[in-house]
Amino acid sequence: MDFKGSETIPGPRTEDQLPHTAEAAAKIVVVGGFGVGKTTMVGSVSEIKPLTTEETMTQAGVGVDDNFGSATKTATTVAMDFGRIKITDQLVLYLFGTPGQERFWFLWNGLFEGALGAVVLVDTRRLEVSFDVMGRLEERGVPFVVAVNSFPDAPRYPMKDLRTALDLSEDIPIMECDVRRRASSRDVLMTLMRFLHSLAMTGSLA
């Protein structure tokens, strides 16, 4: 069938194409409560232009979404964020950022499907939100590391105290990060990959 006059659909940009050396890819989810920096992390570390599904926040969310500590936040993810980063010449990670508001958590099950591991972003001003997040990952059997995002006005605590407060077992890595910095976000992902490797070596990775 000839569609005369139709526009040619452009192919992917050169920078969006997978490196020819890539042999394996892994799906990683970035999770956390509302406003903890998931979209920022995916955007800062992605080697391609990230896909975001942010929408402007309106009065309809007042009293529904907990935006404590995020009073200046004007947009929010309503479906997912997506990015990609090459860890080695052979390994590529696909990053999926989840929506933080509890009313959108029903989308998480689909985003968790096929995930090799996860990064749980934590805001020390709202540690209680992290329990539900980590509980959902544990229910799905998705291994995770915890990254404490460094907000300028957030209280700072020793990592051992945060591990206790979050009831984390000693084997789960926890670290501080600044998701605005690409190197810091990449370090978190490398920590996750080392953790997953150690689980695989001990036969603990399903």
Please render the helix and strand layout as text:
Elements lengths: L23 E9 L5 H8 L8 E3 L18 E3 L3 E6 L4 E7 L10 H5 L4 E6 L5 H13 L3 E6 L9 H7 L8 E4 L4 H20 L5
Parallel strand pairs: 1-5, 1-6, 6-7, 7-8
Antiparallel strand pairs: 2-3, 4-5
Helix pairs in contact: 1-5
Q: Looking at the chains present, what oligomeric state does this protein adopt?
A: single chain
Overall mean pLDDT score? 82
Helix-strand sequence:
EHEEEEHEHEHEH
Question: Which value, in Å, is the CA radius of gyration?
Answer: 18 Å
Q: Tell me the β content.
A: 15-25%
- Envelope shape: globular
Strand order of the largest sheet: 4-5-1-6-7-8
Structural class: alpha/beta
Helix content: 25-40%
Sequence stretches where pLDDT stays below 50 over 5 or more residues: 55-65
Terminal CA distance reads 48 Å
What's the number of helices? 5
Q: What's the total number of strands?
A: 8
Sketch the major β-sheet.
Answer: 6 strands, mixed
